[in-house]
Design brief:
Blueprint (H helix, E strand, L loop, with lengths): L6 H4 L4 H18 L9 H10 L5 H17 L5 H32 L5 E4 L4 E4 L8 H8 L24 H21 L3 H18 L12 H15 L8 H14 L9 H18 L3 H5 L5 H8 L1 H21 L5 H37 L11
Antiparallel strand pairs: 1-2
Length: 381
């Protein structure tokens, strides 16, 4: 397990396409939300049902992130370089995004309007909280992506536990994943794969015994990233009998989860179901990776996938605000939703994400590459 993959073999070229699919599914989910009521036709009804399951984009992102981080961590490097690249890649764009969102919220609040958000789960309107309403502890936990777990430390830390924007929780898990892999690199060096195996086994035991706390990676969420790690290992590192391990594990896992649930919502088990089957798809399609990456029809998805971090950062406030504005204008029901609300929301997210990617994200991607990250291997978030 110690052999390092070559740069050419470790690249999975069609991942940008899957990133694009994940981005669009999450945008549609947060636009349509839980409103999957039957439409006036079988097509609209099917679209509503499909949109309700758009949350599956998150476990797709986690699996892809696992693969990309495995590729990054498997190259010879100091663990300090690994952490530095993660910091440069993730946090500066996040901080700029939070600052811009705060400015917009303050500006609209000064006009007496606020940023309207339609909460599908509650069937009513609210607004994004003004930055002036947040405590210093909330600023710290959101800017460090620690709001999901800091309250468990007790004492004054309970005040940290509020996400200002609802989608940041996924980035909190991403951050924990990066840190855990970095600690394994720091403590085990080239044997960090052994640490991944032991940690994954421990997480399975903790998760199935219920000895977990939501917000920590060992609540089962590590397993979604681990599938991407093991996919990378299978494709680029495993030899001989070890190449049978992942297909056998995926088969058992797929049968196990399929007999215990029907996809209904984004729980850890349903997310693991999606991640398991997605890993199977990536494993099966890998032999056609270059052909898939070169498909002309898939290039718009790849374009979106290359901007996935910018799209993901911006999409939540945009989808909620645009949906809220349309509904305030009386555009309700499945037909206006799919003919007007969804197209304008998706287009707005992609159009605004492009300059953010170009002028905010890319400079920090370049800094990360200069520190040792190869172009095109940016982590999925």
């Amino acid at each position: 397990m110690q052999a390092l993959p070559s740069k050419s073999s470790s690249r999975y070229h069609s991942l940008d396409i899957w990133r694009g699919i994940a981005c669009l599914s999450v945008i549609v989910y947060h636009t349509v939300g839980l409103d999957g009521s039957p439409g006036q036709s079988a097509i609209l009804t099917a679209l509503g049902s499909l949109a309700m399951r758009g949350w599956i984009g998150v476990p797709l992102f986690f699996v892809i992130s696992g693969y990309c981080i495995a590729a990054s961590a498997s190259r010879p490097q100091a663990f300090t370089d690994y952490f530095l690249r993660r910091l440069r890649r993730i946090f500066p764009p996040l901080w700029i995004f939070l600052g811009l969102t705060g400015v917009v919220v303050l500006a609209t609040g000064a006009t007496g309007l606020g940023v309207p958000i339609f909460e599908h789960s509650h069937g009513g309107f609210s607004t994004i909280a003004s930055p002036t309403q947040l405590s210093i502890w909330q600023y710290v936990s959101n800017f460090t992506l620690t709001a999901g777990w800091l309250p468990y430390l007790g004492g004054p830390f309970w005040r940290f536990g509020t996400w200002w924007l609802g989608h940041l929780w996924t980035l909190g898990y991403e951050e924990q994943f990066y840190v855990v892999v970095g600690v394994l690199l720091m403590t085990l060096g080239s044997r960090w794969w052994r640490g991944v195996e032991l940690l994954t086994f421990a997480v399975v035991i903790l998760w199935r015994t219920g000895a977990v706390m939501n917000g920590f990676f060992f609540d089962g969420s590590w397993l979604l990233f681990a599938l991407g790690l093991f996919l990378f290992h299978h494709i680029n590192v495993a030899k001989g009998r070890r190449r049978r391990v992942l297909p056998m594990f995926l088969g058992i896992a797929a049968l196990w989860v399929a007999t215990r649930l029907i996809l209904s919502g984004p729980t850890v088990l349903t997310s693991l179901t999606v991640a398991t089957f997605f890993t199977v798809v990536l494993l099966v399609l890998h032999r056609w990776d270059l052909a898939l990456a070169g498909l002309s029809i898939a290039q718009p998805l790849a374009w979106c996938g290359r901007r996935c971090y910018s799209v993901y950062l911006l999409h939540y406030p945009l989808t909620k605000a645009i949906t809220g504005l349309w509904l305030m204008m009386g555009l309700t029901g499945p037909r206006p939703m799919w003919l007007l609300v969804v197209p304008t929301t998706v287009a707005s997210c992609l159009l605004l994400a492009h300059p953010f990617h170009q002028y905010v994200e890319r400079p920090f991607m370049a800094a990360a590459r200069k520190a040792g990250t190869r172009a095109g291997e940016a982590e999925a978030v």
